[in-house]
């Protein structure tokens, strides 16, 4: 199928934008309502926009009528608590599908590699319309944490690691790239994740914030990288064996994430 895509994401599948430098009251992500929803780690999500304006995180295609991840309905009780985050999600002027705050508990690089996944953003997306990508806006100041991107789940030579201080902003074709976060520390990481439809509005937003499609990877010592790769391979093999024993196969795409 032919979709409208952003040229800025064509080469690497991601862009990093200028950091957001304004203060936001933490109550915007601490006082909203969360639901248990697991995605690449020990997580909860607080939806700001969902399929029908309800506090749930299901894929839009699991509702009646089923549809693609576009035209999300804002949840008044949530957006009233998080007006700045809602404004940030709406700022590009692009069509918004799911919009949620993720709460991720601390993990390791090895955990992150095992949790690498691709999203199913474009199920039921009509031919000729905009390709759905995701914006990530880091809310907490996670200076030792980083987002991992790979073209191939198990190939470390294709890895990019993006730092996650407060205000970090990136847009990722998460249906193309394997992704997850390594989050060190003792407190949860919070990040606003928004599904945006590609098109001229999103292109203008990327240009406004000087999006670049290549950045130097966050530095990680080689011992940690090597140990993480070995542990990823071990866990994947163990999971595959366990599933095979039950006559099942692993599903890599986290279609509900």
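^ structure tokens above, recovered residues below v
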């Amino acid at each position: 199928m032919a979709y409208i895509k952003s040229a800025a994401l064509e080469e690497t599948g991601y862009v990093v934008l200028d950091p957001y430098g304004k203060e936001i009251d933490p109550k915007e992500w601490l006082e909203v309502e969360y639901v248990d929803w697991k995605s690449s780690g020990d997580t909860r999500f607080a939806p700001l926009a969902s399929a029908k304006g309800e506090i749930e995180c299901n894929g839009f295609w699991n509702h009646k009528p089923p549809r693609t991840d576009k035209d999300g309905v804002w949840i008044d009780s949530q957006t009233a608590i998080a007006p700045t985050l809602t404004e940030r999600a709406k700022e590009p002027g692009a069509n918004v599908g799911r919009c949620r705050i993720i709460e991720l508990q601390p993990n390791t690089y090895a955990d992150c590699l095992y949790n690498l996944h691709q999203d199913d953003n474009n199920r039921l997306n009509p031919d000729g319309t905009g390709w759905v990508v995701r914006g990530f806006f880091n809310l907490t100041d996670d200076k030792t944490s980083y987002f991992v991107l790979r073209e191939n789940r198990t190939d470390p030579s294709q890895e990019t690691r993006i730092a996650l201080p407060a205000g970090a902003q990136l847009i990722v074709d998460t249906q193309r790239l394997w992704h997850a976060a390594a989050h060190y520390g003792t407190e949860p990481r919070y990040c606003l994740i928004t599904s945006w439809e590609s098109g001229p509005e999103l292109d203008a937003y990327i240009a406004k914030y000087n999006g670049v499609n290549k950045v130097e990877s966050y530095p990680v010592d080689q011992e940690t990288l090597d140990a993480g790769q070995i542990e990823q391979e071990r866990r994947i093999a163990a999971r595959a064996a366990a599933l095979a024993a039950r006559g099942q196969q692993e599903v890599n795409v986290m279609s509900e994430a």
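The helical segments are 27-30, 76-79, 83-90, 109-115, 200-208, 222-245.
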